[in-house]
Every structure is written in C-alpha cells, then in structure tokens.
Description:
This protein has 10 helices and 8 strands. The chain has helices at 100-114, 127-138, 157-171, 186-200, 203-207, 219-231, 235-246, 257-263, 282-289, 315-330; strands at residues 3-11, 17-28, 38-42, 68-72, 119-125, 145-149, 268-271, 295-297. Helix 3 (157-171) packs antiparallel against helix 4 (186-200). The protein has 2 domains: 3-155 and 247-330, Rossmann fold, CATH 3.40.50; 159-242, Rna Polymerase Sigma Factor, Chain: A. The protein is α/β, with parallel strands linked by helices.
Amino acid sequence: MHQVLDLGRFALESGADLPEARLAYTTHGVLNAAGDNAVLVPSYYTGTHASAEPWIGSGRALDPAEWFIVSVDLFGNGVSTSPSNAAAEVHGAAFPTVSIGDNVRAQHRLAERLGVRRWRLIAGWSMGALQAYEWAVRYPAFVDAFLPIAGAARCSPHNAVFLAGVEAALRADPVFEGGRYAVPPRAGLRAFGTVYAGWAYSQAFFRDGVYRELGYPDVAALLEDWAADHERWDANDLLAMLRTWQQADPGRGVEGGLAAALGGVRARSIVMPSSTDLYFTVDDNVLESAMMSRSEVRVISSDLGHVAGRPGVRAAETAVIEAAMRELLADR
C-alpha cells in the first residue's frame, strides 16, 4: 500500500501550480540515525512505485535489511497528482506542464519529511534516469551516486520526434476532442500503444523471434498486448507524462547549458545504456557522461532494445545492473 505526501498548492517551474498536490511513494527498510542509508527509485513512463519491486528484496542489491528504499511516483502517472485525479481547476485537459525539475523538487520535500539527509544511490530506468540526472544536477550535495539505466540527462531531438509520433497517433482519434473527451479515446490509445511497441524493442528482437522469450507467440500477440495495455490508461495522464519527458533538460536556463549543468555534478555515476536502444542511445550517453567528472559508461549488451534493464524483464540484464548497484553502494 502506498503512502502520500500532501504538498498543498505546489508551484511549478512554468508559473502554474497544482492545487492539493499529492506525491505517492512506498518505503522498504528502516532509515538509519544518520539518514544516509537511503536509496531512491523514481518511477518510469507508465510505471508506478510497484514497478521497482523486482529490484528490491532479501539478498538483492537493494536489500531492505541494509537500505532504506523509497520508490516514488511521477506526477501524471495516475497515482501521484495527475490529470485523472487532480483538483477540478487542473483536471483533465487543464492539467499544466510538470517538469522533471518539478518532480525532483517534490521528491526533495519528501526526503526532508522522511528524514533522509543523503541519497546513497538514485537508480532509475528510462524516465527514472531523467530524474536521477536532475537530482544530481539540482542537489549535488544530496546525492552520493546515481545509476541511470536506458535513459539520459535530457530528451534528445530525435527522442522528442519519437514522442511526437506516438502523441499524434493518440490525438488523431476524433473522440479525443483536444483532451476533453466524454468517453475514453480507445482507438487513439490503442494506436499509441501499437506505434510505441516498434520503438521499445530492437530490430534483432523482432528478426530473431526474441519476443517468444517474453511469452508472445508472434508479433501480432505482442502488438495486441501493447495496444490493450495502453487502452487501459487515461489519455491525458499519458500525455502529461509525455510532456514531462519531452521537455527534460537539466541544462535549461543554466549558463553554459547542459555541459555546465552536468559539470557541476559531484556524484559518481555508472551510465548504463542498452546497446540496441532506439531513442536513448549509447552515443548520447557517451557525450553526457564525458561532461561529468566521476562518470563512466557501461553498455548493457542486449537484444531487447529500450526494454533492456526494465525491472523484472530478464535475469541477465538485471544481474549486470545489480552488480553496478552494489559497486556504487559500496563506494563512499
């Protein structure tokens, strides 16, 4: 069962605000007296606090017997404040743009409320990686280490184009009505999920039939699963998180841009792209890692595409990630 931090009227970087804002989270383990055995796991796109559970448990790198683990929900994911559950003035299509920075500022409030004085590690996959970078830039003295997996510091131009494509598929449904739909735009939601499936995996994943390893008898079954999964989502929630993702850039507004922002990071990082990710690419990760003084790139060799490293998908990738977690947690 998740817990909730009431943030009141939460001011956003855009100048708008969220009335009655709520940040959802779960905790595992016990915070020590120094407040420094804490690990943060931010949620990813269409993920929740529960999505991190495959990484957490006895004998795992994130063992609650040793670490105080906080799994936190993004604004827009349907658990924290989102278009689908927000106060009337920002409900649905009226929901304002929430930045990665807004999420991290709210998470900082949560850390203070919980008594966390330092994050020993921030580990995040995909959009979770975007938040990990933002934490390291915004609160450099608060973060010892971070592990961005199949993610990046910012949304690259090509990544933004991919997101524009899936958004266009959803908005093309006439039922969508600019976000003021009377009934769910199911055709648009299914189109969104279908288009997304082609970006989530690699060419080899489809060519070599790796989808069978994940329980799909054929490509048609995989596409139906992605369509059905996205059909269950609230359309405005999907687009709220998408806007957060698309505008991610910790260098925005910083003199010197991204290089200057990342140059101020004190934390050690192991940056772990997937070798076959189609939109968070190895090349982007290499460029960003070079901007930080205590960073290295370790490529996850995988045929899963972007999905490589998602909690609970494949044991081989999880083992590589957990080895990096243990290394970072042991390094003071």
